[in-house]
Specification:
3 strands, 3-stranded antiparallel β-sheet, Four Helix Bundle (Hemerythrin (Met), subunit A), about 220 residues, single chain, about 5% strand, mainly alpha
Length: about 220
Amino acid sequence: METVASRIYAAIKLQIIDGRYASGDRITEKNVAQEFNTSRTPVREAMRQLVADGFALFKPNSGTVVRSWTPEQVREVFDLRVLLESEIAGLAAARMTPSEIATLARLQDAIEAEGTNIEASNTARIGPLNREFHGVIAQASQNERLVAMLSNAIEVPIVQQTFRRYSTSQLARSFGHHRELIDAFTLHDIAWARCVMGSHIHSAKQTLLGNTPHVQA
């Protein structure tokens, strides 16, 4: 059963993931209580859960602030994603149904609807579609344990904000990876799917770290 605290937690977590709260921003009990028209008691509970789950930190004299990420922590998260998502993609390639492949194609058409437009409005629009795209792949793998492990990794805010860092050429490359994944799934080519997914995640990692050259993909 959903409680007021769990509802506040879910809403604030989504705002962090979507970038409405940036790294280092303060989250005040007073403002959140006013936003949700509630007392501070459930807000404190939600804040404690955000800290426990790694979305925020409690700092003396500052209160609750959105967590920042070091380059090494970014590498760790994305290297874990490479291991998990490459294996998931391989499993999905063996088991993907025509209906699931059609869903991926539909989602990718929607993702590319505005081309390589990197304005904030478009990257915000792409984010949820991209999560759904990867979610279909995860579901098709039919491996609940791997998917559960992955869900913890991909909820990290830095993962969800990748598109905000892309140049037009980097966004085009990401689109290309998605299209190639669809081709690999269509042919049920396990090795191809694993390789493309690994490249896809490594590319996103280097984009976040600022190491990817801005060249045409």
